[in-house]
Amino acid sequence: MSHSVLVLYVTGAKTGKNYFIPVSFFEHSRGLLTCVTDKPNIWWRNLTSIDAINKVKNKKNLKNADMYVTLEPCFHTGKTKPCVDKLIKYKFSKIFYAEKDKNPLVNGKSIKKMREHKLKVYQCDIKDKEFNLNKIFFNKLLLNKPYVTLKIATTNDYMIAQKNHKERWITNQLSRKLSHYLRAKSDCMLVGASTIIKDNPLLNCRISGLEKSTPDLFILDSNLILNKKLNIFKIKNRKIFIFYSNQKAKKLNVIPGLKYIHIKQKNGKLDLNLVFNKIAEIGYNSVLVEGGRKLNTSLFLEDSVNQLFWFKSSKKYGSNGIFAIEGQNSTMKDFISKFRLINKQYLSDDLLKTYLRIN
Ligand SMILES: NC(=O)c1ccc[n+]([C@@H]2O[C@H](COP(=O)([O-])OP(=O)(O)OC[C@H]3O[C@@H](n4cnc5c(N)ncnc54)[C@H](OP(=O)(O)O)[C@@H]3O)[C@@H](O)[C@H]2O)c1
Q1: Mean pLDDT lowest for which of 83-92, 134-143, 218-227, 254-263?
Q2: Site to substitute for ligand 1 among 160, 273, 295, 302, most atoms within 8 A of C-beta
Q3: Which of 195, 202, 310 to mutate to test the pocket of ligand 1 (most atoms within 8 A of CB)?
Q4: pTM to 2 decimals?
C-alpha cells in the first residue's frame, strides 16, 4: 500500500474466512519485515514459528523452505515443544534469525543444533538496531521486571507543571495523541498518588477506536489517601492496583473493586524494585510511568527506566514552574546522561526525544 503500511491477507485456519488486516511495517535486509499491530489485534499469534508450521497441511512443502524468525527458535519445552526439532524434522533449508535467545535454556543451543543437522543458519542484519525486537521479553525473563518506559512532558525551561496548577496541558494536541498511543501500547501504567490528587486525571487512551486499549493501572499510595470520587476510578472495566505500606490505613480506607498490594518501604518510600517485581509477577511485561517530580526522582535514583519519551513544548513557566526532578536545577542533564538519544522528531512546535538506557 505504501512504504510503511501493507495489508495482510489471511484465511482463518478454523473458520476459513478471509481477513484483510492493515499493518504498519519496517523493512530489514533480505526482505525481512517487522509488522506492528495494535494490542487487541491477535492475528499475529498465528505466526509464531511452531504455529505457522502446524498450519501447513502438506508438510512436504516445508522441505528446503526458508524461515525468518525474530528470535532464535526455542530449544526447551515450555508452552510448546522445542521449535528447533520441528525445523530439523521438516528439513528446512535456511533459518534467518534476528537475535540469539538470552534465556539460559536456549542461548545459542538451537543455532548449534540446527547447524549440526546441516541447516544453514544466519543472523539477520537488522537495519534499525534501536528497534530491539525482544527487549521486553528479555527484561522480564532475566530480571523479573517489566520493561519500564517513562514519559515526561516539559516546557522549554524543563518544568513539568505550574505551581498554581492553572494550565492543564504543557504540550500540544499532537504530542498528547502520541502519549495516548503510548498508553495503548503498554501493558499497564504506574503513577504516584500525588498526581492523581493534584490533576484528577483519567489517564485513559482517548484515541478514537483504541479506547478499549486503556491499560490497567498501578498507583503508589502509601497511606491510602485517595478517595473514591476521583475521576480515575470512574473508568469501567479497568483493573486498578494500589501499592501501599500503612497497614492501619488499609483497615480504614479501602475502595471496593480495587486491588491492594502491601509493599515494604525503602528510605521512607515504597520500594520501587519490589513494586516492579510485583508488576512482573502479576503478569505485565511493560509499564508506562507518567511520573510527577517525586516519582521521576526515585526512578532516576534507582536506575529503573529502560526507555524515555521526553516531550518538550516551546512554552516557559519560569518561576511558576515545578522541575521534572527534585534537586536538579533545570536541564535534566544528569538524568539523560544515563541514556542514549535514539530519535528526535518535531510534533508541530513540540519536540519529542526518545532515549534508551545505556546498559
Ligand atoms: N508533565 C508531566 O510529564 C507530568 C506527569 C505526571 C505528573 N506531573 C505533575 O507532577 C505533579 C505531581 O508530582 P509530585 O512530585 O507531587 O508527585 P508524584 O511523583 O506524582 O507522586 C509522588 C507520590 O507517590 C508516592 N510514592 C510512594 N512511593 C514512592 C517512591 N518510591 N518514589 C516516589 N513517590 C512515591 C508518594 O506518596 P505517598 O507517600 O502518599 O505514597 C509521593 O508523594 C503534578 O502537579 C502533576 O501535574 C507532570
Answers
A1: 134-143
A2: 295
A3: 195
A4: 0.82
| Positions of E strands within 176-327 | 188-192, 216-220, 240-244, 259-262, 265-266, 269-270, 286-289, 307-312, 321-323
Identify the residue with better confidence: 159 or 8.
159
Cβ 220 under 6 angstroms from ligand 1: yes
Mutate-to-test residue for ligand 1 from 182, 248, 269, highest number of ligand atoms within 8 A of CB:
269
Judged against a pLDDT cut of 90, whether residue 248 lies above it is answered with: no
Rounded mean pLDDT, 332-355: 92
**Residue 223 near ligand 1, beta carbon < 6 Å:** yes
291 lines ligand 1 (CB under 6 A): yes
For the segment 115-139, the average pLDDT, to the nearest whole number, is 78
- What would the grid cell of residue 328 be? 536538579
148 contacts 290 by C-beta, under 8 angstroms: no
CA distance 218 to 286: 12
Higher pLDDT, 39 or 231: 231
- Span 5-123 CATH architecture: 3-Layer(aba) Sandwich (3.40)
CATH of 138-357, one of 3.40.430.10, 3.40.630.30, 2.60.40.10, 3.90.76.10: 3.40.430.10
